[in-house]
Design goal:
The complex is a heterodimer of chains A (220) and B (94).
Chain A (H helix, E strand, L loop, with lengths): L1 H24 L13 H28 L2 H32 L8 H22 L4 H25 L15 H45 L1
Chain B lengths: L1 H20 L24 H48 L1
The chains are: A mainly alpha (220), B mainly alpha (94).
Amino acid sequence: MKKAFVPLTIVVAAMFAYAPVLIARADYEATMGLVQKIFYFHVPSWFVMFTAVFICGGASALYLAKGDPRFDRVAASAGEIAVVFGLMGLVTGPLWGRKAWGVWWQWDARLTMALLVELIFVGYLIVRKYGGPGSEKLGAAMAIFGTANVPFVYVSVNIWRTIHPKTTVVPTLAATMAIPFWYSVLAFMLLFTLLMTLRLGLERQRAALDELYLAEDDDV
Amino acid sequence: MYNRIVLALAGVLALAARIAAFQPPAGQNEFVPASSLPPGDQLPAAPLLIAAYAFVWIAVLVYVWSVWRRLKRVEDDMHALQQRMTGGRKESRR
């Protein structure tokens, strides 16, 4: 992965540099107009958030089952990235909603559940940082419960009445909107891969430092 | 007794007349698209769009900077520890 890191960084930077051009060329949505273009960054940020949450939850389950610290390192990295991208979704959504719905926020099922998942993972990071010895296992359990919420967030718009658009929007996009949308999704996913590599590198270095401290103690 | 009943009925009728006289204003039964609002009442979309995109960029940059800073701190600690350990071994050999 080390060899691929620099080329991947260049590809991601180029994709993000070209994304505004592609998005500007996309057709305007009939009722919302210009502000609808937030969609091209808002939805991919949730794609990444949910991917990161699933990785965090899966790695946490494996860590609890097998006790291998490598799974814990993957979970910690993915959990942190999930919070960053969840924050992006929670900020860009109200900016879009203010114009489209006339309100910044509505306590409906989709928005409230999305906020709840974000708060669970903020809690996960706090537990890991300040929980003391054994907090990795407590955090892993929290991550599994947080991950279990994600399918409910996704289907909430189809089950309950909310002001948020339904999940049918993406599959029914016109080609002029679908191309920039899936381009953005790919760019965000590559960015996630890049950030995950970077963050995992930090976890590995921390593990190496801990081993050095233990070796020093043995020497003494 | 009869007078009281008449008085009560008159009171009820007066109240009913007042309620009947009070009618809510006719509701607007047509949807008014936001685009037909006067320009002063319309919310500009461009600042919201720019704010959303800027936030995403800033969040990514701040996060990368935070990971880089933590990585540098860990590497500095490792370097210092390695130097201390090699220094300690030299001392013990003497």
